[in-house]
Write a structure and sequence with these properties.
Elements (H helix, E strand, L loop, with lengths): L5 H13 L10 E8 L9 E3 L1 H13 L4 E10 L2 E9 L7 E11 L2 E9 L15
Parallel strand pairs: 1-6
Antiparallel strand pairs: 1-2, 3-4, 4-5, 5-6
Length: 131
């Protein structure tokens, strides 16, 4: 069987979430995969290994109160960037926008780093004027 391209891996990964089919994650995750989630801020939870990463993503796919929607996907070689929204309730403020920076080797995800916009106010940089 030929090795899947980065674009094929990421398309299937995203489909697992949009179609709510955790089974699509099977065989996408490398044994030495490392994933960092967006929470808790500021560093996020670090998850390592195929079994742990697959379990973490499966729980998110299976969460009926949440909805993950890819907005844009850019693939460059073994890297992919996924801009997404994650809705975690029905309220107007119950969502977050973020990005995953992914790396694929030999047709499997080896790295997935998540980043998101955070709630609350970020203070201006020292020496800058507030607009």
């Amino acid at each position: 069987m030929p090795v899947r391209t980065t674009a094929e891996v990421i398309a299937r990964f995203n489909r697992a979430f949009t179609d709510r089919e955790a089974g699509l994650l099977a065989d996408l995750v490398a044994e030495d995969c490392v994933m960092e989630s967006v929470r808790p801020a500021p560093r996020g939870e670090r998850v390592a290994g195929r079994e742990a990463c697959t379990a973490w993503w499966t729980a998110l796919v299976d969460d009926d109160t949440a909805r993950f929607t890819p907005q844009e996907v850019v693939v460059a070689g073994d890297r992919a960037t996924i801009v997404w929204t994650h809705r975690f309730g029905d309220g107007p403020d119950q969502w977050v926008q973020g990005v995953n920076v992914m790396r694929v080797t030999d047709g499997r995800i080896v790295e997935a780093l998540g980043f998101s916009k955070t709630a609350g106010e970020v203070p201006p940089a020292a020496g800058s004027e507030a607009a």
